Amino acid sequence: MSDSRSYRVIIIGGGIIGLTTACTLLKEYTSIDKLQLTIISTTFSPETTGDVSAGYWEPYGVSLNDERMLRWARYTYDIFMQEFFSTKAAQAGVMQMPGHILKSQNDQQISENDDFIVPSFLPLVRHYRVLKDPEIRMFDHLGPVTGFVMSSVVTEVRRYLPQLQRFLECDSRVKFVRKKIHSFSELKGEADIIINCTGLSARELTGDLTIRPARGQVIRIHAPWIKAVYYFETVNEGVGYIVPQSDTVVLGGTFQLDDWNTTPTEQDTRHIRRMCAKILPALEQIQDGVEQAGLRPYRDGGVRLEHERTTDEIDIVHCYGHSGAGVTLSWGCAKDVVEIVKTLLPVYEQHSSDLPEHEQLWRLVL
Ligand SMILES: Cc1cc2nc3c(=O)[nH]c(=O)nc-3n(C[C@H](O)[C@H](O)[C@H](O)COP(=O)(O)OP(=O)(O)OC[C@H]3O[C@@H](n4cnc5c(N)ncnc54)[C@H](O)[C@@H]3O)c2cc1C
Q1: pLDDT in tens, 91-134
Q2: What pLDDT is stored for residue 299 in this prediction?
Q3: Which of 24, 118, 131, 222 is the most buried (most CB within 10 A)?
Q4: How far is residue 10's CA from residue 190's CA, in Å, rounded to a whole number?
Q5: Tens of pLDDT along 293-332?
Q6: Where does FAD bind (predicted)?
Q7: Residues with Cβ within 6 A of ligand 1?
Q8: Is the pLDDT of residue 275 over 60?
Q9: Which atom of ligand 1 is nearest to the CA of 323?
Q10: Nearest atom (ligand 1) to Cα of 43
Q11: Ligand 1 centre from 352 Cα, in Å?
Q12: Phi and psi, residue 13, nearest 5°
């Protein structure tokens, strides 16, 4: 039986946060035929921030003291893992692989009892192991390091987002509009609720100056022999990371706060190549590649996920400021956003399904 209530929801933002929210909304409002969901965005894939990202699951660039991060990351991990072991994996670009996370130790930091401190997100993954001798000796060429290997997942956003979009386009309740919103009041009277998933541009739209760019440059190369993720953090030279995708490998990276430059620089290219070749020396021989730079939506107080009723009585649920972890936190945040929406637009009829959670959220459209 379907519910005859009529709800109008607008999502601003067609990136990973906007589209995972849209899918979660449809899942929770399955019984509401008269839901009208409009997704308004200036850009869609392949022009979103996630399309530049490595799509690696790790709560990177966000504070892990915030208990919400771990909850969001855990739920998202479980969805991606279910997807890897489903018929979606190839088309959606979801890959399970080992992630080696290594930290350089300077001489003073090393002592006999210097056990690796396990990051709080590590127990969320299905399998991990702190590297012990002789395992750590694989990385002798990096000098003294500590680290761990974990079962991680890489979601290639430029494959994943088009699949979510196709699924959403097939639902008659959903409409896509490509345009820029300059102020929420432009939409007054057009929706019962607006969901703000505008990433870094939330700074302009909301006036929240605590959201700022954390510039990241990457190089996409052809290196088919690399089958695992390597992340190497040094004391004085920054980080290098290597993240395989389905037909390329992403080399990174930089994390430059308050830098708005979206053009790749020679200096960053040299730094990234040098750091990554330290980890895997064969990379010295690869000179080709496509350089890209994107702006992570970093926010001083962490992700803003909350309801606001404006002075002109517009209900907005904000969800922005995911920094370097928008892919990692996406499904978890979407779930919390929709829980807030449900307090404002109630669903009286509970829908139950035997499908696995990821299939309830979205399905491949062949
Ligand atoms: C180099 C790099 C590497 C990264 N690697 C990883 C990684 O390995 N793992 C990970 O989890 N994360 C990673 N990230 C971070 C991740 O990409 C971001 O956190 C995530 O993409 C943010 O998603 P979003 O949907 O909030 O923002 P966006 O992708 O920026 O989407 C916002 C959307 O809103 C639209 N919009 C904005 N303002 C308006 C407006 N006023 N009107 C209409 N539309 C509007 C935009 O057009 C856009 O489509 C990386 C980022 C970079 C740059």
Answers
A1: 999 999 999 999 998 655 555 445 567 888 988 998 999 998 88
A2: 97
A3: 24
A4: 8
A5: 999 999 999 999 999 999 999 999 999 999 999 999 999 9
A6: 198
A7: 12-18, 40-43, 48-50, 52-56, 180-181, 197-201, 205, 216, 218, 253, 294, 296-297, 320, 322-328
A8: yes
A9: 19
A10: 47
A11: 32
A12: 120, 120
Residue 189 gets the label, from left (phi > 0), alpha (psi -120 to 50) or beta, of left
Structure tokens at 109: 């930091």
Kindly state the tokens that stand for 115.
Answer: 């056990």
Is pTM, for the whole model, over 0.90? Answer: yes
pLDDT digit string, tens, across residues 140-175: 999 999 999 999 999 999 999 999 999 999 999 999
Greatest Cα pair distance in the chain: 68
Nearest Cα to 322, choosing from 129, 121, 59, 71? 59
Decide: 252 and 216 in contact? Cβ < 8 Å: yes
The answer to whether the beta carbons of residues 51 and 156 sit under 8 Å apart is no
What CA–CA distance (Å, rounded) separates 151 from 124? 10
